[in-house]
Amino acid sequence: MKKRLLAGLMTTAMLAMTLAGCGSTSSGEQAPSESGETAGSGDGYSMTLIMSLRDEFLSTLEAGSKAAAEELGVTLSSQDAQNDTGKMIQFIESARNAGDDAVLINLVDAETAQQCIEAAGDMKVVFVNRVPADTSVLEAGKSAAVVSDENTSGYYQGEFLANYFKEQGKTDIKYLMLQGTLGLVHTEQRSASVLKGLADNGINATEAAAPLVAEYDRATAMDMISPLLTTTEFDCIIANNDAMALGAVEAMKAQGLDPTSIPIVGIDATVDGVQAIKDGTLAMTVFQDANGQGYGAVKAAANLIEGNPINDGTDYETDETGNICWVPFEPVTPDNVADYE
Length: 341
Fold this sequence. Notes:
- There is one protein chain.
- The chain is α/β, with parallel strands linked by helices.
- It has two domains: 2-148 and 289-327, Response regulator (Rossmann fold, 3-Layer(aba) Sandwich), CATH 3.40.50.2300; 151-287, Response regulator (Rossmann fold), CATH 3.40.50.
- Helices cover 40% and strands 17% of the residues.
- The protein contains ten helices and 14 strands.
- A seven-stranded mixed sheet has the order 2-1-3-4-5-13-12, with helices on both faces.
């Protein structure tokens, strides 16, 4: 089970954090395996993971990164930029000044990738979860990205909704959309690809109201969508992530409405999102492999240092440049939700 595997890796990471103190692994030494040999590559490397913020998904990515670092014998510290590009640059410079070999960056702003690379100096740079707006800044042997193709995440939502409505004999629908932070590449791609998925599968979808920019936040989504629930006609609610989808669920419940009466779809397959599918209040979500992204980022950084292809030692594919490593999305529905617990 994918979620059970993730839980085991998170436990390993949390144990490592407990032994080392919050924010880093216990030492630069590589833990011996059961055979007495050191585990994996990366012996003696020092890296810093800089997150845009610590939300539920990125905390899982952080735990997966630390589990991978423990496995590979890498010393990994982590920092929270609190959605501040200035702080992110400062953390990158601090990692460089401390002599780190690589920095893993979850971008606050996709437009600032070149600035981050420049701040990193001679360190290897791996962008994780959020791809640079201009991928030409990635340079073989020096910088890379470990991400998931956001064009597929929304498309899975669109395919699911299209099948749902075709079974009802509907080809014309109205939707409410809860969007994440504007300007982020994955916000734009998730929003566009769900509509493409609907159109490609024979559904004419129109806005019931202008998209609501809820910043990927559950409480914000709840507040923003509440006034529309009883004043607007709509057939479904599309959210760029599970947190906002669950905000819509809570808003409906607060007004005495049944969230199972219309399909509400999210992305990320968070613990709460998966439970909501089991409960029937969320129609579907899309599994974004936080552990896979975290593991892949640490592995890619070690590969850059060693001069290997960034996906060496993983099952992930790269794009034609070899600078982007793809961690696939997977649709999660009531039919397969048990696989993601």
